[in-house]
Amino acid sequence: MGVMVVGMIIDEIITNPHKFREAFLIQVTLSEVDKEYGAILNVLLYYIWRGIFETREALLKGKVQTDLGILCFATYKSFLPIIQNIRLGYPADVVILLRAMMERIALLGYLHTHPQIIPKYKAKKNNLQKDAMAWAKDQAVENWMILYSMLSNVAHARLEGTAGYMLDPNPIGDALRKSMPDLKKPLTIITDELIAMVCYALFAIAPFASEVLGQKNNCIFPDGERVKRFVDLADLGKFQNFLVRLIEKYK
To answer: In principle, which of 132, 199, 243, 245 could form an S-S bond with 107, CB 3.0–4.6 Å?
Structure first.
């Protein structure tokens, strides 16, 4: 009986975005980010769940090339530690993970466009990621390499320890903030920017994932009935306002 109950819970998490979101959010105690951005995170977690679920379904039904399907599945799953680190207030860690995310998204699109290179990818050829990033410069969403370069400046900071500690709340982070006044930013502003980059990454992976999974039109952030079935209308409204604010800020 216990095994059946556990199986039902697992199945619900996989197939029900509400259960998926509940199971994910409960892992971290309610944070200041949750209080301020809870509605926005709810919407983002729906789209992350959708990517994971649809990729899983395509793999189980044999509708996708296995290696590309697994890479797509792993890419959507890698959004979760990014969201979790945003909730925990570790912006530098988020930046490092987002940079790796951009590389993975570029690789997904590159391999789908050049399936003959998949054996090379499986053989772990070191220059493949570089080729994928060069390809993504013209094939991915606008400002791809500009953002990647900005993230790289943090991930590969010249000062040892800056990437991991420049903003985190610890003695080294405090010391760096005091010695580098230009790095001081209110947490809400930083969180705005980090969540904006998550939106950007979801927007970037959507067309590649749709092609890999053989979907004709699976846009990100649509205002369709399916989304309204799984996401509270009030949350969608707050998410829309958040996007409008970002567009006004960065246009």
So the answer is: 132
The backbone region for 219, taken as left when phi is positive above 0, alpha when psi lies in -120 to 50, beta otherwise, is beta
Select from 218, 220, 216, 207 the least CA-distant residue to 112: 207
Q: Do the beta carbons of residue 55 and residue 72 sit within 8 Å?
A: yes
Cα 142 to Cα 15, 19, 106, 136: the distances in Å are: 33, 34, 13, 10
Q: Quote the CA–CA distance of 251 and 248 in Å, as a whole number.
A: 6
User: pLDDT per residue over 72-101, tens digit each?
Assistant: 999 999 999 999 999 988 888 888 899 999
* Complete DSSP assignment for 220-250: SS---HHHHHHS-HHHHHHHHHHHHHHHHHH
Written as one letter, the residue type at 173 is: G
Burial label for 3, CB within 10 Å (0-12, 13-18, 19+), is exposed
Q: What is the pLDDT of residues 185-223, one digit of tens each?
A: 445 568 888 999 999 999 999 999 999 998 876 677 766
| Structure tokens belonging to residue 35 | 């209080």
Rounded to whole angstroms, the Cα distance separating 209 from 105 reads: 9
Half-sphere exposure of residue 40, counting CA atoms within 13 Å on the CB side?
24
DSSP 66-90: HHHHHHHHHHHHTHHHHHHHHHHT-
